[in-house]
Amino acid sequence: MVVGTCELIFHLPENHSLKGKRQVSRSLVQRIRSRFNVSVAEVADQDRWQTLAIGVTCASNDSRYANEVMSKIVDYVEDHNGLSAVLASLARDDPSGVVAALDGQLHHGRPGSPAALRQQVGERLAIALAEQSGRVTRWIDALATASSPTARQVACLLLASRYPEDPIGVLRTAELLADDPHWEVREAAGGLLGSLLDRDFDRIRGRLEVLRSAKSENLRRAVVLAVKYAARRDKPERVADLLRLLEPLLRDPEPYVRRNLGPYTIGDALLRVDPKETLKALKDWSRDRDQTVRWNVAMAFSSAIGSFHWPAAKSILERLAKGPEPLVRNAVAKAMRRCRQRYTEEVEETRLRWRKDGERAATAELVGPLKKR
What we know:
By secondary structure, the chain is mostly helical. About 65% of the residues lie in helices and about 10% in strands.
């Protein structure tokens, strides 16, 4: 008996949860299994959000047949993702063909390419256009100014490779894309700025300090996203500087800015990289008179990573729960409910105590009782 095996590795750069990864995995496993009648399962990196490893096996009495099945599966995955058409257009040096191939895919039931495919295209383009300065510039110009949002997202992936040769031009284009009408382009531009911040920290930090005061809420949000993506490089020595970069934005009144700040950039990103420094800043900020600042502090503990820090969060949330503002109280309640998923008895005990405390009783009611399972 011959057993054919194959491992397929996928990078999911725009996925931010295990739930999202499971959706991709489940769909892919079902398609391969039903089409080729083979055994398929997720085999590694199951706790990593942005890496998906799929193992495929088949049994046969003929090694050539087993190899043929494995090859067909690889071809099927690439063709299904639209990569073949993209590579053909790349070989023809045809930016519009790449865009057409990407837009020809269906993503969530509508035209547009999945994030993993866009990432693959960006990587292939960067490799193919390496050391061809004029050609890189032409492709970036064509993609960044295209009417297709998908093209502009791919431009963000290409711009990072162009930065050493043209830092001013790349930064200018990144800022234009960060203020794009399409939200996925703005997200990609935020990722680009995060990559540049990691690569050229002092220079990009200085530019982001200017963007904190931009009239456009999109550009102010881009600063938040840049910090979030830069934090993924796991450099704790930079966390204090990143917190100072964010501090003025804690007062930003626009929901579009703050929704990404407290819960995700501080809670899920900086708290993971350097909990000690981040918790110190949160404790200081919890005394601020501005309710938006205190909302961000509370929401940091409503995140997946933030909820692990209940022992440190308890005293901070105790202080915030006394405030009269509904905005802050609701944020505290959300943080309490999230922390209660991990520290059930401790958080519930705190909530019951708050119910008897005149200053915190209203917040305790917002938290609500523990639901019996």
